[in-house]
Amino acid sequence: MPCRVLLSILVLYKQANQFIASKSSMINKKLIAATAILTSLIIVSTGFIPNTTTTSVQAQIGSMSTLQNVEASIAVSIVPGAAQRNSPFHYFPPAINIPTGTTVAWFNNDPGQPHTVTSGSPGQPGSGAVFNSGIMPATANSFFQYTFNDDGEFLYHCEIHPWRLGVVSASDAIDRQQNFELSSGTGPIWNFSKDFRNLVNIEPLTVPLDRATPITYNITILQDGANKVFSELFTTPGEILPLELIRGENETRSYGPDFSSTGAYHIEGAFLKPDTDYTIVADIAAINSVPSESPITEEFGLRTVE
Fold first, then answer.
1. What is the spatial distance between Cα 290 and Cα 235, in angstroms, rounded to a whole number?
2. Cβ neighbours around 129 below 10 Å, total
3. CA dihedral 22, 25, 27, 28 (to 10 degrees)
4. Are 29 and 17 in contact (CB under 8 A)?
5. Quick count: other Cβ atoms within 10 Å of Cβ 207?
6. Pairing of strands 74-78, 91-92
7. Residue 261: per-residue pLDDT
8. Residue 31 has what DSSP assignment?
9. What pLDDT digit, counting tens, does each position of 187-227 carry?
10. Could you tell me if 76 and 91 are in contact, meaning their C-beta atoms sit under 8 angstroms apart?
11. What are the pLDDT digits (tens) for 250-259?
12. Cβ of 116: how many Cβ atoms within 10 Å?
């Protein structure tokens, strides 16, 4: 599996090199020239004219921030300047770990440039057999969605710019307890040497999910069973809580959701260290803004290694 990219400058640079090394048996190192930070990308029009006669358009139009009816839990952006060969990134993040059943949405945020999201390696037999967006129009925020129902590692690329690759790793690991079920992109052991991002889905089993009534989750993370390193409230519109854990360097911050009111929240945690035991405590704090009358809580273990 590839390494996972963080938003902080130092980790972006470090992860890019590790990502290349971990994929050296599959990907030519020249395919991913990640030597700068995402925020240094410049918006450049290359004048590329795609061949639209062989690929049907399956992408849709919407916005990551305003789209109301997107099915996806997590977003991947085709970043500004992605059409350039010397762009640090094409898909961001370029590699994610998700539980099976997760829907990923790719958004074309590269002004004036069409792109594709096509499974497999460029030019190889079976390319596009698992999923293929077709040409994503060179208009603002065209997007494509795909649900990963099978576990495994899914390499994908852009047919128009075949030097650009991304990876989705899907895991079927589930920890089911009395009040909650937790599914994880890495399983109960998170290998930091390979995986920088880990999406976990926290699903209550004793609370109806009607996709309408707001549910407020209180998520607390303990280090070595006692030391509280994170605690925050997250609200979903009557849905499970998708929560992506990301290795951090200097500070801990949370952000999200990915869409207007749905999608993944993200915790970029400086507290996340290798070779450490963590406990994720999930608690229903309120339903429709009414505090829970009785505790609805569960604890899940997560170990990090490197």
1. 12
2. 10
3. 110
4. no
5. 16
6. antiparallel
7. 85
8. G
9. 999 999 999 999 999 999 999 999 999 999 999 999 998 89
10. yes
11. 899 999 999 9
12. 26
288: left (phi over 0), alpha (psi -120 to 50) or beta: left
Q: Which two tokens stand for residue 282?
A: 């999930």
CA distance 52 to 133: 13
Query: From residue 98, how far is each of 7, 19, 141, 201, 204 by CA, in Å?
Result: 18, 17, 23, 9, 18
In this structure, of 46-50, 105-109, 181-185, 211-215, the range with the lowest mean pLDDT score is 46-50
Instruction: Supply the DSSP string of 33-68, one letter for each residue.
Output: ---S-GGG------------SSS----EE--TTT-S
Q: Which two tokens stand for residue 248?
A: 């951090």
Burial label for 69, CB within 10 Å (0-12, 13-18, 19+), is: exposed
- pLDDT for res 36: 28
Q: Which residue's entry shows tokens 């899940």?
A: 300
Written as six digits, the tokens of 289 are 């803004």
Strands 152-157 and 142-148: unpaired
Q: Burial of 262 by CB count in 10 Å (0-12 exposed, 13-18 middle, 19+ buried)?
A: buried
Instruction: Record the pTM.
Output: 0.79
Radius of gyration of the chain (CA): 19
pLDDT at 98: 98
Reported as a single tens digit per residue, the pLDDT across 21-76 is 343 333 333 333 332 223 222 222 222 222 222 223 354 444 444 454 568 899 99
Domains plus CATH for the chain? 37-47+54-171 (2.60.40.420), 174-305 (2.60.40.2550)
pLDDT given for residue 89 in this prediction:
87
Name the nearest CA neighbour of 306 among 14, 85, 41.
14
